[in-house]
Structures are given as C-alpha cells and as structure tokens.
C-alpha cells in the first residue's frame, strides 16, 4: 500500500462483462429493459455486472457501481509469494509488459512497491484486490486451479490470454463459508487460495483506466482507482452481501444508460463514461479482443476538475482546452473551481462530462484518446452502433 498518499486511498475496480446463458437463474437477475432500450440493446450478446451500494454507505450511497473496493495491506502481503511460487521467475508474475514509458505511468501503476516494503508488484496486488473485492461483494470468484500452472506459464504468449475466462466452481456452502471469512479479514483470501489450491486469476484482468475522485463530490473519502476489464464466457452466479451491497443486476451497457436517464438508478460519471465507451462493442468477442490487445499500451491518470457553467457541473478531463496544465502537481492539489467556466474563443479541444442534474449527463469529446483507447459513444441514441459504423 502506498502510505505516502495523503488525499487518496488506493482502490481497484473490475468491469465484469459476461456472455448470456439461457438458464432461468441468470435471466431472473437481469433488469427487464424498457421497450426503447430493448431495441437498442438487441445487438449486445453480453451483460455487465452492477452492484447497488447500501443507503448507509459513506461513499456514494444508493449508487450502482462496478464491483471493487479499497486496497488492503493483505493484497501486498509477502505470503502471496508462496501462492505464486511457480511464477516468481516470470516477469510481473506472467503479466504482460506495458509499453507506456515509466515516467508517464499513473502512480498507482508506476510506484515502486519494493521501495515501500512489499515484494508484490503493484499491478499484481491491484488485480488481487479487484478479484478479492469482487468475491466479497458479489460472490463471483475469479480463480484458476494450481494444477493449471504449467499450462498458464506455457500459454502466456499464446492462446490462454486471448480467450474468455470462466469463474471457478465451488459448492454453494463452501463458497459462502469462504466469502464470509474473506469479508471478516482480507488476509483470509490468501488462506483460501492456499487451502483450495487456486490462484487469483490476475491474467484475466486487463488494464483499462485510472480515475481519481474529485474534491468534495462524494464525501470526504477520495479514491485513486485502477479500472480493469474482464470478459467471461457466460454469466456467473452472483449474490449481494446485504451489507455494503443490497442488490446486483446484469444489464447491457445501453440498458444501464437508459435506466439512468429514466431516473431508475444512479451511476457516477466514471461509470457513465466507461459504459458509454463499452457501447462501441456490441459483441463480447470484440470487447475482449480490444481490451486484451490495448491493455499493454497503458493509460492516463484522470482527475476530473469540476467547474460551473450555466448551473451545470462540468468535469474537465485531461486533453480538454481548459484542463489545468500543472499536471505534475494536480494529484496533490484541489483543482475544483467554484467560479463559472468561460470557454476561450477556440474551444475545439473538448474532453468533458456535463451534468445538468444528477440524472442528465452528456459527454463532449473532440480529442483523440491516448494509448490506443477508444472514445465513448457521446449520444445515448447511438448506443446500438455496430462495429462496421465506427
């Protein structure tokens, strides 16, 4: 854990996309789309998992979020060296190298954890955190049997990382027992992996984004969050924990956006942005291939700078004409502005999220994404766009 951070707590989030299966148990967990959303989402062959936070949560109560949470010291424990013993001679425990220059990497990925006292690379620990939190919050367990170690090692550069993944199957009672133990103490996740002889499937998680919480928007706690993408072959079973999470649902990206605009649920700007980006991929195979291929490029650190214009809250993002230039210090300072936004004469470079009210959000984007990423669909009506139209 990076104890040098003063304003942010490190966290990891997992965008979990899964192909649909026809079983009644999975269909019953889906949110029935409105008639308009049904037509727009008919091209989509996958759903994304969203969890509703408790009304008692101190951070974004009642919001629908991707699974994830704060990094724990157990995620950086040296005990993981024994669990991953067969991978210690593989650079980064077998994770692929990122081509982004080290000096431009977001600190959450680029910080030398060994200097902070942990032998576990940050990119490994963050993925462990995402897998653990997903298990705690939703019951979905993304692990692989240790007996597959040799195939994993031999397949890193071959087909293993280029196909979808499946959840690990445990008996219901065994799954519930371990989930309760991990919720009580994150270090029990290490114990669970040892006793069940499984490995957190860190290789199924693809680096996707890095969002930081702006000042004063969602309470006092601010997070520096690594976003990962994972694509599963079929929808796993999920169950809310009745503590932090009170409901879960599987829906297509356009269905979620339609429900948000209809004021049936609330999502934060990062979720709105990333779901709009996923609207570019109606097919799970295309989403998975893009996420897998792009992940080695790296990503930007995005700290939204919130300003006011005509009673609208506008979140400026890196690349926008008005985004602060002092990027080297923006993660330590408070750049939220109370003064109205005044666009310069030439405002062609736009990268912003515009909120007229909590349920009315639009994206204004004219800049090209860095690191071979893809821009979001900027109009809800285009959420059914096909790949051939890109």
UniProtKB/TrEMBL annotation:
E.C. number(s) listed in UniProt: 3.6.1.77
Domain Nudix hydrolase: 29-273
Catalysed reaction, written as an equation: (6Z)-octenoyl-CoA + H2O = S-(6Z-octenoyl)-4'-phosphopantetheine + adenosine 3',5'-bisphosphate + 2 H(+); tetradecanoyl-CoA + H2O = tetradecanoyl-4'-phosphopantetheine + adenosine 3',5'-bisphosphate + 2 H(+); (9Z)-tetradecenoyl-CoA + H2O = S-(9Z-tetradecenoyl)-4'-phosphopantetheine + adenosine 3',5'-bisphosphate + 2 H(+); hexadecanoyl-CoA + H2O = S-hexadecanoyl-4'-phosphopantetheine + adenosine 3',5'-bisphosphate + 2 H(+)
Signal sequence residues: none
Disordered: region residues: 325-347
Necessary cofactors: Mn(2+); Mg(2+)
Keyword field contains Magnesium: yes
Basic and acidic residues compositional bias, start-end: 329-340
Coiled coil residues, start to end: none
Key words of the record: Hydrolase, Magnesium, Manganese, Metal-binding
Protein family: Belongs to the Nudix hydrolase family.
Name of the protein in its database record: Acyl-coenzyme A diphosphatase NUDT19
């Amino acid at each position: 854990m990076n104890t040098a951070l003063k304003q942010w707590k490190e966290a990891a989030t997992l965008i979990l996309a899964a192909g649909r299966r026809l079983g009644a148990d999975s269909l019953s967990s889906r949110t029935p789309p409105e008639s308009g959303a049904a037509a727009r989402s008919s091209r989509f062959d996958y759903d994304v998992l969203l969890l509703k936070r408790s009304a008692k949560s101190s951070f974004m109560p009642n919001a629908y979020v991707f699974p994830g949470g704060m990094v724990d010291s157990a995620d950086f424990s040296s005990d993981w060296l024994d669990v991953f013993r067969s991978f210690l001679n593989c650079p980064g425990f077998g994770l692929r190298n990122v081509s982004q220059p080290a000096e431009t990497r977001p600190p959450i990925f680029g910080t030398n954890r060994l200097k902070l006292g942990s032998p576990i690379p940050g990119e490994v620990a963050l993925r462990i955190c995402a897998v653990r939190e997903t298990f705690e919050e939703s019951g979905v367990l993304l692990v692989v049997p240790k007996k597959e170690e040799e195939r994993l090692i031999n397949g890193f550069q071959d087909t293993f990382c280029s196909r979808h993944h499946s959840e690990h199957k445990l008996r219901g009672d065994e799954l519930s027992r371990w989930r309760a133990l991990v919720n009580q103490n994150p270090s029990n996740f290490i114990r669970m992996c040892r006793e069940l002889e499984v490995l957190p499937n860190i290789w199924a998680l693809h680096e996707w984004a890095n969002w930081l919480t702006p000042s004063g928007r969602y309470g006092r706690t601010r997070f520096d969050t690594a976003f990962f993408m994972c694509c599963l072959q079929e929808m796993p079973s999920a169950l809310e924990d009745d503590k932090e999470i009170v409901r879960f649902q599987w829906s297509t990206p356009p269905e979620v956006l339609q429900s948000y605009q209809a004021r049936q649920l609330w999502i934060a700007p990062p979720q709105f942005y990333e779901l709009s980006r996923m609207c570019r991929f109606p097919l799970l195979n295309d989403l998975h291939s893009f996420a897998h291929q792009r992940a080695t490029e790296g990503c930007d650190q995005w700290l939204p700078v919130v300003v006011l214009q005509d009673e609208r809250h506008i979140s400026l993002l890196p690349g926008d004409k008005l985004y602060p230039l002092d990027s080297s210090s923006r993660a330590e300072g408070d750049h939220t502005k109370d003064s109205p936004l005044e666009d310069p004469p030439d405002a062609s470079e736009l990268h912003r999220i515009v909120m007229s009210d909590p349920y009315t959000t639009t994206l204004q984007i004219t800049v090209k994404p860095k690191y071979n990423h893809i821009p979001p669909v900027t109009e809800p009506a285009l959420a059914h766009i096909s790949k051939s139209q890109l």
